[in-house]
Design goal:
Distance between the termini of chain A: 93 Å
Number of strands of chain B: 10
Shape of chain B: globular
Strand content of chain B: 35-45%
Number of strands of chain A: 30
Number of helices of chain A: 26
Helix content of chain B: 10-25%
Largest sheet of chain B: 5 strands, mixed
Strand order of the largest sheet of chain A: 10-14-15-13-12-11
Oligomer: heterodimer
Largest interface: A-B, 23 and 28 residues
Strand content of chain A: 25-35%
Strand order of the largest sheet of chain B: 8-1-2-10-9
Distance between the termini of chain B: 46 Å
Helix content of chain A: 25-40%
Shape of chain A: flat
Largest sheet of chain A: 6 strands, mixed
């Protein structure tokens, strides 16, 4: 493509973006001469360069627009919504022509007579002829009052000749471009002419470029010095050189990153138009407030979050903000407010989209979830509002039908979540019925250089992104036997009063040893605690090396299917290390996925705490008879498994030898039923039994149970008083009547008995 | 196409193969390789090629000739592909030879298994049978979902 044409395209696209932004501003401040003049200048310069380069269609449209704007500027015409819509249609048409020029098809075969005619009619203040686009149809329908504020149809019938063209030397630069990094031209709206050209060019502040050049100069000097070092072999000089090199690299890296940083304005500036058009279509009134649009993010991230953000904003207008009538009834201003906020926090960028609309009704979600068969009636009744709200992110929740109409916020929120998570971010939603909804996104600043922890397993090194890292645990000697246990075959670690599910990296990847470390009797166990979504788990590794900054490289297409890896990086010694993906590893957890998923949601705040209920972490158990119990985790000393053949009988009571003492065993079901004899203990056909060991005031007791179902971290609401000794109260947990056991009491009674 | 063809030749399991020299980016001796757990068995590891991460394909495995051990002295035949560079692990790399298209023969009918789909045919220009490898067929085979989906063990 011709260099001139390229330049023309970039310039026009930028001009159009500015035009769109300012038109919307103008709508709120119709009298502003400053905005009007600026808009006029942009259109004029587009017209000029289009004519110069021989794009008659562009020039013709721009000419008509310029005439219209000239009248507005000279005060011969008052701005109204139809004029703004007409001018926006002009922007769209120009974009589509530019797209066509860019793809090498010239201006394409278009008939813009209707648009030109529309622009022309607007100059005379005539009522528009019906226009095909739905938006303008909606406009006619819902804003009759706007028509009345427009000049009377008959006002100035013969349009005077077009205003004299402004001085020819109008500079193409626009007033808003004073900032250091001018946003790269961003592409046209969806459909029409998504501009690849604009995506591949970026504008960089000359000062920054100079600084980078200086740094490169220093880099060359440092290289020369180091080359000299290799000849003279001066240790001190070499050290000084490496330090310098280190410094230069860091600065160069920062500078380079800055060139890729773009203000989030590039996305935000598109939104007023989206909100305006959608609000008109839905017959609503909405106003968008933007805060922190200068917040900077990496270009690739800006690209990645553009669609999710637009989607959320659309949802907010479509489903969040109520129709003006309803708003008035609810005592809210008829115009809904949408607020976008972007700010830096802890190395991440937070983006909030909030509206003062109707909020999301959890009752409706509940109903829908039951209809869809996702929840049983019981479960649905038990779930908190917050848990229900999170269902919105579930795939399938969104799929069209009445659901989105009643509950709002359904359309593709799972896609939004996936997209944001795929770039290492997270999405969170809060909603209050009748008051509005807030969606918060946390987005990393850049993707290419990240902080990572290097670990080893099976002789290979792996990098773990710092964002997923919670903490490191090292167990040595006796602590291993105390800290690690197996719950129903799945390894766990006692960690801050909870049981942390463990994944052994060697086993997951099939490298190195094949047995559980607990069984091998290892002397030292390193655990990296990771957070993937709401799930927290421990990754057992051979060795923890150190933390470093790594450069993320994507994996070859053939390797992308492996969920455990997020990419690869080159280490200081030139060897390659794979980057682990916490989400992928979490899938390898042998813990049943359904309960963990549910638990994740349960960890959120739950508001209906009953004063008598217990807050804390519980182990949810079943016995052979499928009766369900819960035991406070802090009362559980250990979980053990014994062979049934190791059971001995002392005074007709079952015991096992455990750490040099005799541990009395209690079969929970039998014991609670008042039967002391536990014949069933020895008759387990699996040949082994799971036992909870409880210690209090020097006494130990082992509770025989069948399996651990889940670990709960929530309030347990008292549903009934204890019916029998050894039970503190009963509650409903996951749809089952559950007895919360009083281990101290059981230990006391059993202790006396034995 | 009457032009003579240049083939970069290499041996694998004592058989002589050739691949169009225009596909070849470079050849390398033994490299430090990082294995990729859970990858398909055709993928032997990743190598660092001057800052680029390049995947090494176990050609022996692709052609049903067993597996190349990770610590072998296998050489890398680095090819250009649409997705960047890719390396084929081979036993030894030999000369570039000129072949006459007129001596081309389709694969011998007794050639069995995987190898048959990956051989374009043979040339008799050199003193022994030279099998022309279809690099694209190999690439198609290692592509998911054909191979990489299943873990190796």
């Amino acid at each position: 493509m011709d260099e001139f044409v390229k330049e023309y395209l970039v310039e026009c696209l930028e001009g159009l973006a500015l035009l769109e932004e300012q038109l919307l501003e103008l709508e709120h401040d119709p009298k502003s001469q400053k905005i009007l003049s600026s808009i006029f200048r942009v259109v004029h310069s587009i017209k000029g360069s289009s004519g110069f380069l021989g794009f008659p269609q562009m020039a013709a449209i721009a000419h008509e627009g310029e005439d219209l704007l000239g009248r507005l500027r000279d005060g011969r015409l008052d701005l109204n919504d139809r004029i703004v819509s007409g001018l926006l249609a002009m922007v769209d048409a120009m974009r589509s022509i530019l797209g066509s020029i860019e793809s090498g098809r010239g201006e394409g075969e278009r008939d813009d007579a209707a648009l030109i005619d529309r622009l022309h009619r607007l100059q005379t203040g005539y009522v528009e002829t019906p226009e095909p686009p739905a938006i303008s149809a909606a406009l006619e329908r819902i804003e009759p009052e706007a028509t009345s504020s427009a000049p009377a149809p008959a006002a100035p019938p013969p349009p005077p000749p077009a205003p004299a063209a402004p001085p020819a030397s109008v500079s193409p630069e626009h007033p808003a471009s004073g900032s250091a990094v001018i946003p790269a031209a961003t592409e046209a709206p969806e459909g029409a002419g998504a501009s690849a050209l604009a995506d591949t060019t970026i504008r960089v502040d000359v000062g920054l470029l100079d600084k980078l050049m200086n740094l490169v100069g220093e880099l060359v000097l440092a290289r020369n010095q180091i080359l000299r070092c290799s000849i003279v072999r001066d240790e001190a000089l070499f050290q000084a050189c490496s330090q310098r090199l280190n410094l230069i690299t860091t600065e160069l890296q920062e500078g380079m990153m800055k060139t890729r940083m773009q203000p989030i304005r590039n996305i935000f500036s598109k939104l007023p138009r989206v909100v305006r058009d959608l609000a008109l279509t839905c017959g609503k009134q909405a106003r968008l407030m933007i805060e922190g649009e200068e917040t900077e993010l990496d270009k690739t991230i800006i690209e990645a979050i553009k669609d999710p953000i637009t989607h959320i904003v659309r949802n907010s207008v479509d489903h969040g903000i109520e129709a003006p009538k309803i708003r008035a009834e609810r005592g809210k201003p008829e115009e809904g407010t949408l607020r976008m906020r972007a700010y830096h926090e802890g190395g991440m960028v937070n983006i909030e989209v909030s509206d003062d609309g109707g909020g999301i009704d959890p009752a409706r979600i509940r109903r829908k979830a039951i209809e869809r068969g996702w929840l049983s009636d019981e479960q649905a009744a038990r779930w908190t509002d917050r848990e229900l709200l999170n269902l919105i992110f579930r795939p399938g929740f969104s799929t069209a039908d009445a659901l989105t109409m009643v509950s709002g916020r359904g359309v593709g929120m799972d896609v939004v979540k996936n997209r944001v998570e795929s770039i290492g971010g997270s999405v969170d939603l809060h909603s209050r019925l009748g008051e509005g909804t807030i969606i918060k996104m946390k987005i990393p600043l850049t993707l290419t250089i990240i902080n990572a922890l290097i670990v080893s397993a099976g002789g290979d090194r792996f990098a773990i992104p710092q964002v997923n890292l919670v903490e490191l645990i090292r167990l040595e000697g006796e602590a291993i036997r105390q800290g690690l246990a197996a719950v129903h075959g799945a390894p766990v670690c006692r960690y801050r009063g909870r049981l942390l599910p463990l994944v052994d990296l060697n086993l997951v990847l099939g490298v190195g040893r094949r047995e559980e470390r607990v069984d091998v009797g290892e002397r030292r166990v390193n655990i990296v605690v990771l957070q993937a979504d709401e799930l927290r788990f421990g990754l057992v590794v051979d060795r923890i090396d150190d933390a470093q900054e790594i450069v993320v490289r994507p994996l070859a297409r053939q390797l992308k299917g492996i969920a455990c890896f997020a990419g690869a990086t080159i280490m200081g010694d030139g060897r390659i290390a794979l980057i682990l993906d916490a989400f992928g590893l979490a899938k390898a957890l042998t813990v049943e996925s359904a309960p963990t998923e549910r638990r994740g949601i349960l960890e959120g705040e739950s508001s209906e705490a009953t004063p008598k209920g217990d807050r804390g972490t519980f182990l949810l158990l079943r016995d052979r008879t499928e009766a369900q119990y819960a035991v406070p985790l802090e009362e559980v000393a250990r979980l053990e498994s014994f062979g049934t053949d190791s059971v001995e009988w002392v005074a007709a009571r079952p015991v096992v030898q455990y750490r040099g003492t005799l541990l009395p065993l209690v079969d929970v079901a039998e014991w609670l039923a008042g039967r002391g004899g536990s014949d069933s203990i020895a008759s387990d056909e699996r040949g082994s039994m799971n036992v909870i060991i409880h210690e209090s005031s020097g006494r130990r007791v082992g509770l025989v149970f069948d399996r651990v179902l889940d670990i709960l971290d929530q309030d347990l609401d008292v549903r009934g008083e204890a019916g029998r000794p050894g039970v503190r109260f009963t509650a409903a947990v996951q749809g089952h009547a559950t007895e919360i056991l009083d281990l101290t009491e059981i230990a006391r009674v059993v202790g006396v008995r034995s | 196409m009457n032009d003579t063809l240049l083939l970069c030749t290499f041996t694998l399991d004592d058989r002589l193969f050739g691949v169009d020299v225009r596909r070849v980016q470079e050849v390398l001796r033994r490299q430090d390789m990082t294995r990729v757990p859970l990858a398909s068995r055709f993928i032997r590891g990743l190598i660092n090629l001057r800052g680029q991460i390049v995947m090494a394909i176990d050609l022996r495995c692709c052609l049903d000739l067993g597996e190349t051990p990770i610590d072998s002295d296998a050489m890398h035949l680095v090819l250009r592909t649409d997705d960047g560079s890719l390396s084929f692990l081979v036993d030894r790399i030999h000369d570039v030879v000129v072949v006459e298209p007129s001596t081309f023969e389709p694969p011998p009918s007794n050639l069995q298994g995987e190898m048959r789909t990956m051989i374009l045919g043979s040339y008799s220009d050199v003193d022994r049978l030279l099998l022309a490898l279809d690099a694209d067929a190999v690439l198609t085979m290692i592509d998911p979902p054909a191979g990489a989906a299943a873990p190796t063990h």
